[in-house]
Amino acid sequence: MIYYYERLLPFRYIFQWLNHSPKPCQDFTMREFAYEYRSGAYQRYNSYSSLDEFKQSVIKANPTRFEVGAVYAVNPKDRKTLPKSAMKPLEKELVIDIDLTDYDDIRTCCSKTQICTRCWKFITVATKIIEQALRDDFGFEHMVWVFSGRRGAHCWVSDKRARVLEEPKRRAIVEYLDVLKNKGNKRLNLRRPYHPHIERSYEILKPHFLDIILTEQDPWADDEKAEELLNSLPDKNLNEALRKLWKERPGRSSLQKWKDIDETARKISTKNFNTKVIVEAKQDIILETMYPRLDVEVTRQMIHLLKSPFCIHPGTGNVCVPFDASKTFDPTNSPNLRQIQKEIETWEVEHSGVPQERKTSDWEKTSLKPYVDLFSKFVGEVLKSERNGKRDREENGDELEF
């Protein structure tokens, strides 16, 4: 890990991102960092006065990863000399956390810590829904998605308005986004007409339902899972007819069973049978299976720490790289520590004795380059916004109202 910290991790961009300025200010110097070690030890309340101190401390400590926390009213490393009430968090990026483990009831390709390109599609559609809501419904502009290194993604919102949100407003935002709300085995049964955010989310998800759910995941192929599908339908007569059909014709795929719902509904249609209810139930099922599943506590609590972009996941060796949610990202082919070490060695052999016009950073010699470039661009936009917005905030204020 020392090799990675000394040569590859883009400390300067992480510093600028968290500091919101080229020169050290309280956004960075009063910020908490935590270290996790191979032994299992966990060290909190580290803080630094400069980029160089930050980098040298990480190299010296050589943690398996480091995590980013809140900006406090006092210096976190001085907490032992201060009353507990003094350790008040003032700012923290608004963070959204999505983990594929929460999709284990619907994904069939993988489970637990495993992922593949098929189930990553849940994350792909989730990022589109969350990002559009954050931009259109809350007016946030500066957000970056980061691969967790194993099975999830984190969205960091760096707008000043987002960073200064108090916990009640953070809770309000995540409750707005958390449509599923740990419904368990209960039928979703959303109110009609859909809230505009839910309607928009449904329109995003609907075109992907055939591909992701019915074709690739095929979650209702066996009898036990088919019962879960039936439990999501509100009509007992329809359920019994479908149950009988699937018993007589075993081995039907999820796609066939999905079509069976409409065909069977038409056959048993009577004056007392409301086809609109079935249509709405199927709409809810699309949302139930594909809508983003959020770890709400990560968003709610300002003091919650989260591993920094470009950390190495200790279990996989994968780099926690930022990615563009509007483009295809393959987590199974993202940079890995061993891979990028070999890439540096290869680059240096190929360029041995070749004069360089400028000094090439080590990360530029590896597959990390496009991800660092993406993060650098994001950080530049944050810094520009901070400069341009400072005067407006001082004169007019800029709080998020609910």
From TrEMBL:
Record CDD domains = AE_Prim_S
**Origin, by domain of life?**
Eukaryota
Q: Which organism is it from?
A: Wickerhamomyces anomalus (strain ATCC 58044 / CBS 1984 / NCYC 433 / NRRL Y-366-8) (Yeast)
Q: Which InterPro entries match?
A: DNA_primase_S (IPR002755), DNA_primase_ssu_euk/arc (IPR014052)
Alphabetically, the GO molecular function entries are: DNA-directed RNA polymerase activity; metal ion binding; single-stranded DNA binding
UniProt entry keywords in alphabetical sequence: DNA replication, DNA-directed RNA polymerase, Metal-binding, Nucleotidyltransferase, Primosome, Transcription, Transferase, Zinc
EC class (word): transferase
| Entry's transmembrane regions | none
Name this polypeptide is given: DNA primase
Q: Which family does it belong to?
A: Belongs to the eukaryotic-type primase small subunit family.
Q: What is its EC number?
A: 2.7.7.-
The record's Gene Ontology cellular component field reads:
alpha DNA polymerase:primase complex
